[in-house]
Amino acid sequence: MSKILVIGARGRAGAAAVEEALARGHEVVGVARAAAEGVVVGDVTDAVRVAELAVGYDAVIAAVYDGGSDPGVFFPTAAHALVEGLSKAGVNRLVWVGLASILPTADGTLLMDTEGYPREYRSFFLAHQAALDVFAASPLDWVSIAPAGDFDRADPARRGRYRVVPADAGGRISYADLAVALVDEVDHPANHGTAIGVVV
């Protein structure tokens, strides 16, 4: 059994990760910016608070987003706070919920650079990449996991399986099955210092 801190536990990906980890018998604490039943309050951009919360944990899963902030500020700030806070807390393993857009497709082209992919959100995509750049320059044992295309909102079922594949705009995975991949990377870390995409 591991002790897992899930930051962003009120979001769909974070909540699914909490549920999956608890189902496996792990000791889990969820963190959210606002008070709510079943979570503790914490801000992922506050390195001191991250350190306080993470002490004694084996791994952190971070599924974070702030729609009210500039993503170009939020994501790298959150990444720096995680690096600093987890280092102070003595936690080495970070599993980050990433973004398909910045993953390479089968021919090596980033998904966000493929023909027909929406360009109006490019600053958001680059903000996610900036966070990964922060992790890459740190001593953390990190992995970023994203749907290879998008979440399957039409079929939220948990199948309990997934495949690691190149980015593909048509690829789909449920939040529940993404959570399987997230917790697998705590239970049996197989990917280190990299970003991967998953589909069912």
Walk me through what this model shows.
The protein is of the alpha/beta class and 200 residues long. Strands 3-2-1-4-5-6-10-8 form an eight-stranded mixed β-sheet, with helices on both faces. Strands 7-9 form a two-stranded parallel ribbon. 34% of the residues lie in helices and 22% in strands. The protein has helices at residues 12-23, 47-54, 71-89, 122-136, 175-187; strands at residues 3-7, 27-32, 39-41, 59-62, 93-97, 141-147, 150-151, 163-165, 172-173, 194-199. The protein is globular, with a radius of gyration of 16 Å. Helix 3 runs parallel beside helix 4 (122-136). The protein is built from five helices and ten strands.
Distinctive features:
single chain, alpha/beta, two-stranded parallel ribbon
